[in-house]
Amino acid sequence: MFALCDVNSFYASCETVFRPDLRGRPVVVLSNNDGCVIARSTEAKQLGIAMGEPYFKQKERFQQFGVVCFSSN
Predict the structure, then answer these.
(1) Are the beta carbons of 29 and 12 closer than 8 angstroms?
(2) Residue 51: exposed, middle, or buried by beta-carbon count in 10 A (0-12, 13-18, 19+)?
(3) Residue 42, helix vs strand vs coil
(4) Which among 25, 42, 20, 33 has a CA at the least distance from the CA of 71?
């Protein structure tokens, strides 16, 4: 028997579970080698951060809005 679970914004949600200080803050998780966004919290989505968005193009914007970035590595 197998079970599959789909969790909204899984990687970002996991970070907020283990780091309660991040609740209510925009959180993104970046792909291997920090290339692009692969998971976003609800707060990050509200800022208009898109999936697959290259980090190097948005780095200043992330700093401006206090977006917390994590690497998937």
Answers:
(1) yes
(2) exposed
(3) helix
(4) 33
Enumerate the H helices of 10-54 as residue ranges.
10-18, 42-46
| Whether domain 10-71 has CATH 2.30.40.10 | no
Per DSSP, the three-state class of 69 is strand
* 73 residues of the chain, pLDDT tens digit each: 888 777 778 888 888 889 999 999 999 999 988 899 999 999 999 999 999 999 999 999 999 999 999 998 7
What whole-number distance in Å separates Cα of residue 49 and Cα of residue 51? 7
